[in-house]
Design a protein that fits this description.
165 residues; elongated; 3 helices; SH3 type barrels; alpha+beta; 5-stranded antiparallel sheet; 2 domains
């Protein structure tokens, strides 16, 4: 055996290094928190999108089908691959301690909520309040807002509903 090869082998054994280079492929299918990826002429399924494919999502990044991803294997085998990076994320979920944040590029909407309420619910409550707002005047309570104000409130409602889930 060549001295250089022997030295590399001894160093690898000494420090426990196991070269595990990233593998790149193209996403072909998404299934929950796993995906299928095309590597050259063949396709591998059940590739994890997070460290554990257990159905609970603390942080889950779902790549767009057709995008390139980088994967690593914890034990060096093809059967234990996890996506570590993707070129284009289609959805991102963060869920921890009752806080949920979802970014969905397929719908163009964002969800932000906790165990108590959501940003969409709060905005809807604001719209409902503004549409029926009455104040005291010297001659008694006022009527509901004028039609031009109602139009602006409805435009606000339409706009936030196009952004929020």
């Amino acid at each position: 055996m060549d001295k250089t090869v022997k030295l590399k082998e001894n160093l690898r054994l000494l420090v426990g290094a196991n070269p595990n280079l990233p593998i790149d492929g193209i996403v072909t299918k998404i299934s929950g928190d796993t995906c299928s990826v095309k590597l050259g002429d063949f396709e591998i399924s059940d590739i994890r999108l997070k460290a554990t494919a257990d159905g609970t999502d603390n942080l889950l990044i779902i790549p767009k089908i057709g995008t390139r991803v980088l994967m690593l294997s914890t034990d060096g085998t093809i059967g234990n691959l996890t996506v570590i990076k993707c070129d284009v994320a289609e959805k991102i979920f963060y869920n921890e301690n009752g806080l949920l944040v979802e970014i969905d590029s397929t719908t163009g909407k964002v969800k932000l909520q906790n165990n108590e309420t959501s940003i969409k619910t709060l905005f809807q409550q604001l719209v409902d309040l503004l549409k029926t707002l009455k104040v005291f005047t010297p001659v008694g309570p006022s009527g509901i807002p004028l039609p031009d104000s109602i139009v602006k409130i409805e435009n606000f409602e339409t706009d936030f509903k196009t952004l929020l889930k």
